[in-house]
Amino acid sequence: MSILKASQAISKETKLDKLLTVLLETVIENAGAQYGFIVLKNLFDDNLYVEAIKSKNDEIKIMDSTPISDKLDVCLEVLQTVIRTKEHIVIEDALKDQHYQYNEYIKSMNVRSVLCAPIIHQSDLKGIIYLENNLTDNAFSIKQLEVIKMLSSQIALSIEKAQLSQALIKIKETQKQLVQSEKMASLGNLVAGVAHEINTPLGVSVTAVSHMIRTTENIIKSYNDDNISKSELEEYLNDSMETIELLFMNLNKSASLVNGFKRVSADMSNEDLRAFNFNKYIKDILLSLSPKLKKYKHKIEVVCDEDMEIYSYPGVYSQIITNLLINSITHAYNEDDEGNIEIKVLRDANNIKLVYSDDGKGMDSETKSKIFEPFFTTNRLTGTGLGMHIVFNLVTQTLKGTITCESSPSKGTEFVIEFTVD
Questions:
Q1: CATH no., domain 3-170
Q2: Which of 6, 310, 382, 399 could link 419 by a cystine bridge, Cβ 3.0 to 4.6 Å?
């Protein structure tokens, strides 16, 4: 294969596994090797790993960053010398070479010809190509080495481009998993909070029913003994009515909590479009968050037309408002502060403007500029740095809208979210 064809074959591949396969096939075909492998420097830890091997049965295998070790079929002495010196090594006949003839690998594998060439770009070792031929001596000529040298920069650039592309894909996958974990963590906190909150009215209801059972048993006994007075019966009826009212109030509270939780949790776990009342839904979100919000003294005001119906993704608004509230609680106020938070929704035809504001600590310009960056947080003890990044992605990607932030120290923070609905 000509240098031009080899360069074209290498440069057109952008996926790392395909690039390594083409690269190994190209150099082995060009050099006439039986066996070979490619070692690359890792982008993240700067260590060298075996990334692709052509075995002696002609199969090319992608190794997924396998550490260099004694288990690898290679003359480690040759490999380590090239790593140290960044210079190529060509061995005409390893069994007779004064430096390597006593090497255990050379003797046991009956190695004849070896070519080991560094992949250099801007004086930096990017990787190594190692080739063997055990059938004949002098298998690798200076001409073949020169081809590899000439292709070295092209190889290094193509590999780096492919590595960066692969790293970006992995980072995006990891980010997606972290965002999903954050959503599930929020849902888990919601479940735990509602379970704790619902325990109080249910506990009162159980106590009320227990009391009613005892008083009813007593009144039945008195009736059976023909020993019941009108005043006792009236007292029992009055007591029963009070108990029933108490039961109704607490069970109704429990039902409201459960229904609100069902709506919000179901919407948080899927992204289905549906019509809903925006005002009522915001209040459902606040109700589901009440176990957490009641620990603080903040006043939360909702300004939204009570009849505002929209057709959109309710789960998205649940996550947005929840994360904005958690952000205020975590970062805007001290534990004993009595803050004021406002959620205002304005509609002009199909255009919606959601303005979220608090009167907390506010942010300086540097913090504000990083507010939507993943993993950025001013409170590493309680924050993951993903909440506002999730908000940004939901607004810009799912709602196809915009979000802006205005804030300054001691003057609170305001987020303005604008989007359109059908």
A1: 3.30.450.40
A2: 399
